[in-house]
Amino acid sequence: MSPGKVKVIFIGGAGRSGSTLLDRILGQIDGFCSLGETYHIWQRSVLQNQLCGCGTPFKECSFWQAVLQEAFVRGEYQNGNALLNLQRSVARLRHMPLLLFPSMRSKSFSSHLSQYINILERFYRAIVKISGCNVLIDSSKLPPHGFILSEIPGIDLYVIHLVRDSRAVVYSWQRKKLRPEIYWKESYMPRMGLLRSTYEWLLCNWLTESLSQKVLHYKIMSYEEFTKSPKKKVEEFVKWLGMGAQPNFFTNECMVDLGIDHTISGNPVRFTHGSMEIRSDMVWRFNMTFMKKHIVSGLTFPFLSRYQKYRRGVQQR
Questions:
Q1: To which H or E segment does residue 33 belong?
Q2: Which domains does the chain have, with CATH numbers?
Q3: At 186, is the secondary structure helix, strand, or coil?
Q4: What tens digit of pLDDT does each residue of 11-31 get?
Q5: Residue 254 gets which letter from DSSP?
């Protein structure tokens, strides 16, 4: 494989913020590869054999099997439990103090982290080779995953911090949504209560913003602003990345033609193919109770107030 660095776009922030949609749209650009939430590959794909975004079970997807065979030798990836345990030893929210402050790391943690970094670098390089793309999009969102990506020597990391209105996120966490990737039984996406989802919104956005201190390329953007003019925003992303590709898959400012992507986990929109209109989901404004709106607004202020300014623009470098 090429010794050059792999360009990875990490979409960070809180869950239910529209990251899968942004991932899919960016993945339509020539030379870009939409991966979905790769953080979950060991548990949900290697072990549970959930559906790939192409609609086939992971173990029957020729793309991912070729990637794993390229990345790992002697059937290493087949031991999904070992890989999952290694991931859990370094990449959970409880490990954030150690990822934020390297001097606090024990020898054991540093050893496990080094092993996991090596696995991820081989994994991403294999994707570049098999896909033929030079930009990978990872919408895992989880801050520990983003911090670990920032420590991989062979990765040139670009962070898109996607912020959605806290009230919309809390409302989304309480909705009942089917998980089509679990094809062998009827299953629904996990739900969280008001206080837990509010806490998650605050914590994940704060930690993702902290990641800006570790990377050279960071952009924060409002989900609501993105859905107002997605074509314009994608053009801005391409310019920010220093790429010459053009988003010629838009039929107008808000209508996009989605192809088939090999995505891991994420919102059910990853199974959507063909023409799709991009519009902001504002149903929470009408269906969320007055009391819940004000509780969430109060708990997330002043963060909500500060992030709302990005509806008028973006902060980047």
A1: strand 32-36
A2: 6-316 (3.40.50.300)
A3: coil
A4: 999 999 999 999 999 999 999
A5: T
Tell me which residue of 250, 279, 283, 266 sits closest to 16, measured CA to CA. 266
CB 63 within 8 A of CB 52: yes
Neighbouring C-alpha atoms within 13 Å toward the C-beta of 279: 5
pLDDT tens across 27-67, in order? Answer: 999 999 999 999 999 999 999 999 999 999 999 999 999 99
CA-to-CA dists, residue 257 to 52, 185, 253, 276, angstroms: 19, 30, 12, 6
- Cα 227 to Cα 223, 233, 269, 281, 294: the distances in Å are 6, 9, 15, 9, 24
203 with 298: CB under 8 angstroms? no
Phi, psi of 226 (to 5 degrees): -60, -45
CA distance 63 to 65: 6
Nearest to 201, CA basis, from 180, 178, 219, 174: 174
Q: Let me know: does 311 contact 227? Beta carbons within 8 Å.
A: no
Contacts of 50 (CB under 8 A, 6+ apart): 44, 57, 58, 181, 182, 183, 265
Which residue, chain included where needed, has tokens 């988003």? Answer: 247
Q: Can you state the angle between helices 62-71 and 107-131, rounded to 10 degrees?
A: 130
